[in-house]
Design goal:
mainly beta; globular; 9 strands; six-stranded antiparallel sheet; 3 helices; single chain
Length: about 150
């Protein structure tokens, strides 16, 4: 039996008010509001259950360039939702991250339990050295942050 749990805005608002309504921000605003910002390559995405039994995706990433408070070589952060066996939890406005792809990520929190800040706009996919037309040019995407944090 395939069970899919769908969290609508009202249910999500009751459970997690900080993520209930996504406000669109400019990229410089996102950079100021996020605790950490980095250019990363996604190395692994695992679907796990949190301590309350909800499904989440734990993302491991190699840091190519720290832009704000991200001076480590790697980051681990979480996305809400995922799939374990026949159970799936879909949460709207979570960025679809692809292993092997590069992104600028905006993170809320500083530990391994950090979440992507700003929903889908909190992960900007970057072009991968001319091998794909998906994403933005790295230098242009970094420039669009407006010099926030350590970004130059």
């Amino acid at each position: 039996m395939n069970r899919t749990l769908l969290l609508a805005g009202a249910a999500l608002a009751a459970a997690m008010p900080a993520f209930a309504l996504q406000v669109q921000h400019t990229r410089p605003e996102l950079c100021v509001l996020a605790d950490r910002v980095a250019v990363v390559e996604i190395t692994e995405v695992k679907d796990l259950r949190d301590m309350k039994g909800a499904i989440e995706r734990v993302v491991a990433a190699r840091v190519d360039q720290g832009l704000k408070n991200a001076s480590t070589d790697s980051l681990t952060f979480r996305l809400l939702g995922g799939r374990i066996g026949d159970d799936a939890l879909w949460v709207s406005d979570q960025p679809p991250l692809v292993v092997g792809a590069s992104y600028i990520v905006f993170l809320d929190g500083t530990g391994d339990d950090a979440l992507v800040y700003g929903g889908e706009q909190g992960a900007i996919r970057l072009m991968e050295g001319g091998t794909t037309l998906v994403g933005e040019k790295r230098d242009e995407a970094i420039a669009s942050l407006g010099g926030c944090g350590d970004a130059r």
